[in-house]
Amino acid sequence: MSTVMTNKYITKRAAIFSLTVLLLAAGAVAYAAPVPFPALNIGVGTATKPNDVAVTVQIFLLLTIMSLAPGLLIMTTSFTRISVVLSFLRTAMGTQAAPSNQIILALSMFLTFFIMTPVWQQINKDAYQPWKAQQISQEQAMERAVKPVRSFMLSQTREKDLALFVSLSKLQRPKNAADIPTLTIIPAFMISELRTAFQIGFLIYIPFIVVDMVVASVLMSMGMMMLPPVMISLPFKILLFVLVDGWGLVIGSLVKSFE
């Protein structure tokens, strides 16, 4: 009987204590000073000055260009060929996730910067610096900036691919390269880049296929048909790639292919 009374007493004291804590917390919240939060208003209002419209349009165009910048980097530079070749290399070696996609993309990006540096330096010299010094207008700067990029793309584009898109665009036969629109050159350049990348990828595959065939033949002759040949050939492919300085050969060939 005393045990039951003790338990009821403890339960009652615990309930009183919990109620007291809740009341104190409620009082603290009620009498505490409100925490200020910054206000953020985003809206479209009526412009009172022409400059307000100009600034709004400039911000909109800047955001649009920033969103399209990755696409422009892929379409008009050496990024496509480099990334495709490195992906072929990883698949041919059979290492699956080594190197990872982040490493391949980062290496492709910095190799693109390395290869495209002369083009960008020319753009900076002929277009950006004169425009910054207010020696030429914005339209003239854009025309000067496009010329080095067009020259780079035309030097890497096959005439067959260029003729294909000229015929698809239903334009008159151009007299020279200057008459071809830039929007016609870009897809032709990308097709040529993919073709060159697949050619290099085929050459990369050949030595690794030979290693796979030799390992599979040896395992079959030894009667070890239940053992996957990939488990044995993968270390040999990695060893072969390291011994011949594969990274130096692949990267050097990629850079020289743009000369």
Strand proportion: under 5%
N→C terminal distance: 99 Å
Report the sheet with the most strands, covering strand number, pairing sense and barrel closure: none
Tell me the total number of β-strands.
0
Task: Tell me, rounded to a whole number, the average pLDDT.
Answer: 76
* Helical amount: over 70%
Rounded to an integer, what's the Rg over CA atoms?
Answer: 33 Å
How are helices and strands ordered from N to C? HHHHHHHHH
How many DSSP helices?
A: 9
Question: Structural class given helices, strands, pairing?
Answer: mainly alpha
- What would you call the quaternary organization? single chain
| Spans of at least 5 consecutive residues with low confidence | 1-11, 21-33
Shape: elongated
Brief write-up:
The chain has helices at 2-31, 50-75, 79-93, 101-132, 138-156, 159-168, 182-221, 229-243, 246-256.
Features:
259 residues; mainly alpha; 9 helices; elongated; disordered N terminus
Could you explain how this protein is built, in words?
It is a single chain. The protein contains nine helices and no strands. It has helices at 2-31, 50-75, 79-93, 101-132, 138-156, 159-168, 182-221, 229-243, 246-256. The longest helix is centred in the last third of the chain and has 40 residues, at 182-221. The protein is 76% helix and 0% strand. It has 259 residues and is mainly alpha-helical. Mean pLDDT is 76; it is low at 1-11 and 21-33. The chain starts with a helix and ends with a helix. The protein is elongated and about 75 Å long.
